[in-house]
Input
Amino acid sequence: MTQESWTTRKMLWIAGVGLAGFFIGGTLAGPAGSALGLIWGGSIGYGFGSIFDQTLAANLIVIYWGATLALVGPLFGLQISAEVFPKPTIREDISAAVIGAAGGMLFGSLVGIIQLWRLRRKSPTPHSDSAA
Output
């Protein structure tokens, strides 16, 4: 089992996006929203920090992309819902958030697969230039 590295880049992603989530949540829902926004934003920051720290081809990159964009998806789903329904009900909001999360997960998984493929293509194979 390998220990995960906590690089400065990853910590800055967590802090930056977590702070943005804190302010977004606080603006919309007060202190409880600030706490939830901090956790939500920190989770997204952790995902992006983990994604952009990857240098080796690992299957975990697909999971990071899928989970991170699944967390971002409800934000866009609710924005689109607000444009379609002038006064959405709670059921319409929940549906929009779930659809946004599912769409984000699918799109993120696709992006992760593409990035994994590119990382594997770039990775040098061991002993590729040695004579047999």
Remarks:
- The CA atoms of residues 18 and 42 lie 4 Å apart.
